[in-house]
Amino acid sequence: MLVVSNITKKHAGADELLLKNISFTVNGGERVGLIGPNGSGKTTLIQIIMGRETADSGSVQFNPPNLRVGYLAQGLEQADDVPIRSILYPQIGALHEAEREVEKWAEAMANPDGDFDAALAAYGEALERFEALHRQIDLGKGEAILAGLGLGDLSLDTPAGILSGGQKTRLGLAGLLLNDPQLLILDEPTNHLDISALEWLEDWLANFKGAALLVSHDRTFLDRIVTKIVAIDDRDGKHSARTYEGNYRDYVAAAQSELDKQWAAWQQQQAEIARIKADIQRMMNKMQGHERAKSFSEDRAKKAMRVMKARETKLDRYVASDERVEKPVPGWNMRMDLSGAALTGQDVLYLEGLSVGYTPELPLLSDLNLSIRVGERVALIGPNGHGKSTLIKTIVGELPALAGRVRMGPSVKVGYLAQEQEILDPNSTPFDVIQATAPFNHNEARYFLHLFLFRADEVFWPIHQLSFGERARLMLARVVAGGANLLILDEPINHLDVPSRENFERALRNFEGSVIAVVHDRYFVEQYASTVWYVADGALRVDVIEPMMAD
Description:
about 550 residues, 16 helices
């Protein structure tokens, strides 16, 4: 259904490669996961496949050429004032126009002075067009998809602009699912989806008869859904792709096996190079000894020199040959030091009779009496729209409590990561943000940002030019630089690639402070959380669990 052949693309205005000779296929019934570090070119490749960008070389073919493709970008590509109805049913505008045509020719037929036969023929054509469009709009199917994605309570007249980031993602997904695609191309569809919506999407994709190409960093989602992995890897500067059969766990096992074999081959190669160098050195030492003792004739000395030079040439050719094994290069992954300031006491946060929401008459959550202890790691989960982010914003003081209060323990320093990245000034730069947060000089600020994968002059780029993933890394850098000992994180790993997610989890495991994290990554919850706060239908349930804490 999709054939990608030798796609090569350079960075705009530069000779540096972004993608090199990328080739893979997506066949009918396959669900292919496209993975790779942030900045490796996944979204650019998707844009090339969709014809929105041009490759420097290579080709993309759909089979058949008129294949119905459903594409979901990372952000909803609609004006804020467009109602939900128009996004779900783009045919509605044409349907209304066809309905007006039917009415116009019906009136013309009733006009005694008009050409009845011509009006009748035009009326028949307009009615046929209206009925065909009406058949395409399956309101019942639309309602079922909206309900499955947690949008069933929204009016179809609701403007898209008032929706949250998660609701926009789900609305865009609902719109393309309704159009009966044969091939789905989804760029990070799991971002902002709560666990129930994730499970609904997984069930839907499992029963989808077509093919799918999915960019995702959700490891559980990839484990449950994909049948093949295409991994883009720019660690060694090749910017190429490898294809692996199976799900994400199969890919990890196969990639680790390849890495282990490369390490073994490289170590064997280094041992052989060391042996040849030692042999050459022994010959040189022997020659020098004979020269000092004057026990070598000129002919024997020339012969020994030729042998030594031949071995040096052989070594040089071996080191420069295609048979040479490259030393495995670890990925340039985000590094974090979440040491934080020391905490005193046992409890760091108290919720006392707390009610949260936007109107006193309709609180989202009420009468909460909870506390968080030093070192506790709370995963705040539940359906979108039931109060998770509202609770977080009330705790950090962005929203006033409807009743009760939030009280912090002694020496608590809060680090807050917002979901929508609205706390970042779009006209500021990463360098400005870090210098405003911590007393770093110029070089210290640049080095610190380098640890969060900001290269060279990227530290001076305006924030509005950064990708979603780059902004997420910057917000994490800001929290770390602030030296917090209570981390309050609203969707902290959205837009982070898998290596960065794993590094973030590793840093949190070494963090001695306390954490509240709104998160929908089930792998993260299983590996890291010690307590789960489950929010739904106006209630909050507390579950204490034993995290896996895997390395």
